[in-house]
Write a structure and sequence with these properties.
The protein has about 350 residues and is α+β, with helices and mostly antiparallel strands. Helix content is about 20%, strand content about 35%. The longest helix is centred in the middle third of the chain and has 17 residues, at about 175-190. It binds adenosine-5'-diphosphate and magnesium ion. Magnesium ion binds near residues 44 and 45. Adenosine-5'-diphosphate binds near residues 16, 42, 44 and 46.
């Protein structure tokens, strides 16, 4: 049975002093996929290893289903084996001298199952990852993507209460990564598993996660649906890490509720969503995703005249550098034609709900 996971005030300080995980709290509901997203070194793996029991947390509590598995302040630490979690790592971690079937059957040994039960469970897991026809092949004859699916089948075969995945796609080539990325969500959902998945790849997070938690320097900055993380980033770091590439300095002139007007350096005035606590007069940075800048203006609000500095053909889209007042912004337009040559003028719209003002940094 899948269980929920509840992490409260988790802290891990290695002897180096600076916390690797710093007061992190979140829950994963039963059957939910939560992705921890963040740059290398932000504490994703350490969080996952604390849940698995491979790392001894410094503080906070971890609960899997009804069971408290980690509470160092009370001297409680359930060993990894007794937590009944499945793990998939970056490296394939399959046993090279075994067949696919033997690899997947391995975790079932010593659990007192009959031969028939074992076969049924292994066949079920192999079906799930679409490897039934390879069951009796030596695992070394498989591609990287297939090996990773063997590792996945092996981690799911004993129906763990929780599945932990640490960048399982990062050793695969780009094309395989895309395919397995789409497969993974389907497989985890089909098995009804609760999953905590760790990656530094924002697209992987968006495609896989029911919710995404963005981490930086051991802290969890935001935990929300992919749509919310992409459309209302909690702060400048989350905005930039998930793809906002335009950061315009300015000053908040006035605000009415969630929205306000910002005078950008150079004098242009822009309507923007304002982060909590921002008061008129505050120095702000307005973050904008390049794909939210609409070339060919249709509305009066946040309509600006720009000059095309450069255009770069990128296949299904074109990247433009546009002169906007005192700065240059990056904009993306989908489609394979390039109607705006360098030097031409183009009017743009940037819908106010896609302009986010944060305290300046
Ligand atoms: N065994 C360890 N001893 C000391 N520091 C560690 C150890 N493992 C991880 N760290 C440090 O903890 C921080 C978080 O690491 P990690 O959880 O591996 O990050 P991520 O998985 O997000 O890349 C990093 O600064 C890393 O150097
Ligand atoms: Mg890691």
């Amino acid at each position: 049975m899948s269980a929920n996971l509840e992490i409260a005030n988790l802290r891990k300080v290695f002897n180096t002093g600076k916390p690797a995980v710093d007061d992190v709290s979140f829950t994963v509901e039963a059957g939910e996929i939560v992705v921890l997203l963040g740059p290398s070194g932000c504490g994703k793996t350490t969080t996952l290893r604390c849940v698995a029991g491979l790392e001894h947390p410094t503080g906070g509590t971890i609960r899997i289903g009804d069971a408290l598995v980690s509470a160092p302040e009370r001297g409680l630490l359930v060993p990894p084996r007794a937590r009944n979690v499945g793990m998939v790592f970056q490296s394939y971690a399959v046993w090279p001298h075994m067949t696919v079937r033997q690899n997947v059957a391995y975790p079932l040994k010593g659990r007192g199952l009959s031969g028939a039960e074992m076969t049924r469970k292994v066949d079920g897991a192999l079906d799930l990852v679409d490897l039934a026809q390879y069951a009796d092949r030596p695992v070394v004859q498989l591609s990287g993507g297939q090996m990773q699916r063997v590792a996945l089948a092996r981690s799911m075969v004993y129906a763990p209460r929780l599945l932990l995945l640490d960048e399982p796609l990062s050793n695969l080539d780009a094309q395989l990564r895309l395919r397995l990325r789409d497969d993974l969500r389907r497989i985890i959902k089909a098995a009804g598993l609760t999953a905590l998945y760790v990656t530094h790849d924002q697209l992987e997070a968006v495609v896989l996660g029911d919710r995404i938690g963005v981490m930086q320097n051991g802290k969890l900055l935001q935990m929300a649906s992919p749509e919310e993380v992409y459309n209302r980033p909690a702060d400048l770091f989350v905005a930039s890490f998930t793809g906002a590439s335009n950061f315009l300095p300015g000053r908040l002139r006035d605000r009415q509720g969630e929205f306000g007007s910002v005078e950008l350096d150079g004098g242009l005035v822009m309507q923007a969503w304002c982060a909590q606590g921002l008061a008129p007069g505050a120095a702000v940075t307005v973050a904008i995703r390049p794909e939210n800048i609409r070339l060919e203006a249709v509305a009066a609000e946040n309509r600006f005249d720009t000059e095309v500095v450069s255009q770069r053909f990128q296949g299904v889209q074109t990247a433009y550098a546009l002169r906007l007042g005192a700065t240059t912004v990056e904009a993306l337009a989908t489609g394979t034609t390039m109607p705006h040559p360098a030097g031409s003028r183009v009017a743009i719209n940037i819908p106010p709900q896609t302009c986010w003002a944060y305290p300046a940094q």
